[in-house]
Amino acid sequence: MGRIMDKYLIEKLKAIQGIVRSLESAALLFSAGVDSSLLLSLVREALGDKCLAITIDSPFISRQEIEQAALLANQMAAHHLIMPLDLLKEPGLSANPAERCYLCKRKMFSVAKQIAAQRGLAWVVDGTNAQDLEQHRPGLRASEELGIRSPLREAGLRKDEVRALAQELGLSNWNKPADSCLATRFPQGEPLNREKLSLIDRGERFLKELGLSCFRLRYHSQNQGQSKTLRQMAAWNQLARVQPSAADRKRILGLGLWPKIASGLKELGFETAILDLEDYCP
Q1: Which of 112, 120, 40 is closest to 77 using CA atoms?
Q2: Fewer CB atoms inside 10 A, N or C side of the chain?
Q3: What is the pLDDT of residues 220-273, one digit of tens each?
Q4: pTM of this prediction?
Q5: What is the number of other CB atoms lying within 10 angstroms of the CB of residue 228?
């Protein structure tokens, strides 16, 4: 089985390499996730200096992700641009509407295309894989509208295959849990601002420092958009709902971490905290 899988992965790798070589030059949207890391490794190898990794630095992105992107790009000796972009100023985004992901992705892709054009790079590529097409991803519409290439998807690579190839190529983050922008921690319709996004960012960093690795920290308030049950809980305005994976919940309960978690989140600025009994499944 191992030899069959190895051969299969080699065929997939060759397919991606062929696609990448045909690009001739490219700007790559780099988030430091395993998908874009694998793609950057392959694009850097194939195109050399005709490759630019672009990391969008917005209030929606955690500070740790920006730091890790810089570290990984340096390890790959890739040209790397960290591009500040205040997405909260983009019309409609701060209201956190149903089409937030589409609006956000369209703006980021548009900025990446402008940078690519200025530097004479032929394409903008991203780390979308074939499995992403099976999920609700409004941002995919933006990539199609703007002509963004997705070599992993074009080669038919699924998430488990991305991880397997990343491990084979020695990427340090091959088993990094899937992540998403900080805005996904808020219910649709909950207004977004820098303070709320920073609160979630600092809260998740705190939880990671306690040894949690696969979880989400959800934000709830008494705004309309919340469930009736949550709105009726108490006279609070900023509630932290910790949604851990089964493994992280076992760690929290087994090591008696909840009192420390609850008090720590309150110190950061949340008014109260609850532990979700439903598993987080990335």
Answers
A1: 40
A2: N
A3: 987 645 555 555 554 467 899 999 999 999 999 999 999 999 999 999 999 999
A4: 0.90
A5: 6
Do 189 and 118 lie in one domain? The reply is no
- Helix, strand, coil distribution of the chain in percent, nearest 5: 50, 15, 35
CATH, residue 146: 3.40.50.620
250 and 163 belong to one structural domain: no
Question: From CA 36, how far away is CA 53, in angstroms rounded?
Answer: 9
Cα separation, 31 vs 54, whole angstroms: 8
User: In this structure, what is the dihedral angle of CA atoms 89, 90, 96, 98, given to the nearest 10 degrees?
Assistant: 180
Give the residue from 137, 168, 199 where a domain finishes: 168
Q: Do 143 and 33 belong to one domain?
A: yes
> Are 133 and 191 found together in one domain?
no
Is there a domain that residue 200 lies in?
Answer: yes
Going from the C-alpha of 192 to that of each of 31, 70, 92, 196, 269, the distances in angstroms are 21, 26, 10, 7, 16
